[in-house]
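During the no-cost extension, the postdoctoral fellow (Dr. R.K.) reprocessed legacy sequence entries with the updated structure-token encoder. One reprocessed record is reproduced below for audit purposes.
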Amino acid sequence: MGSALGQKPWEPLIRLFLLACAVVSIATTAGIILVLVTEAATFFREVSPLEFFFTTSWDPLLRNEFGVLPLICGTLLVAGGALLIAVPMGLGTAILMSEYLPNWMRQIAKPILEILAGIPTVVYGYFALVFITPQIIQRLFPSAAPFNGASAAIVVGIMIIPTIASLCDDSFRAVPNRLREAGYALAATRLEVSTRIVLPASTSGVIAACLLGLGRAIGETMAVSMAAGITPKLTLNPLVPIQTMTSFIVQVRGGDAAQGTTAYRALFAVGLTLFAITLITNLVSHRVLRRFREVYE
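Re-encoded structure tokens follow.
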């Protein structure tokens, strides 16, 4: 009775609207999965899954070779290189904003940093082509190709710095001040408090930020296509052209494969593989977060 008496007349409509939003979200996700699975199943009736996942030659458009390992290798090479750049820079930026800057400077610095996340990815791609590759990569390594994985990793790393820095900053600021004060009471310096108290206490938030950045790096499309090229190679050399899974999707959607062909259906098989990698990453992240989660009262 109490809830009925205190209920506003528009609350049932709000609940209905929220339910509709949830249903649309779930239905959209289910529809995407259904399309991917249906088309991928047709593809795997024409191409053996063993050939798709365990051979090392990918040329579906000319030679009908469907070994996806070069695309997976290129994707992991770019994403891993991006994390090597973004994690230390993002953590350092977050520590600076959370522990060193006064509040008024943080309120200015954080929105400026997050502007990087709003720049169109095609702009990052051109930045990689006209600056990162010729002015940095090829000056350090003259043998580097005009399109290379290192350039793509650097530019994607720059792209995900705001994501990691912003989330880590929020996680650091959620740590109770009494932990910092306890450190200062034991004569710890600000750096020691930041790295030995605040950072370990924010482990779950830092891991979540890094995994979210990893997801962004794996799914990046235009900047990677423009910087790394569209030449699939199974290599760990970041100075040669490579192709990622998202780059192949862009290539096929650009009209390089006729609809209904095996090469066109390979798009859905690659998309399903990318979805599976993302799903596994999310499942691992949830287990890690449960393991390291800290609750403060």
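The chain has one domain: 58-292. Strands lie at 58-59, 65-66. The remaining legacy entries will be reprocessed before the final report is submitted.
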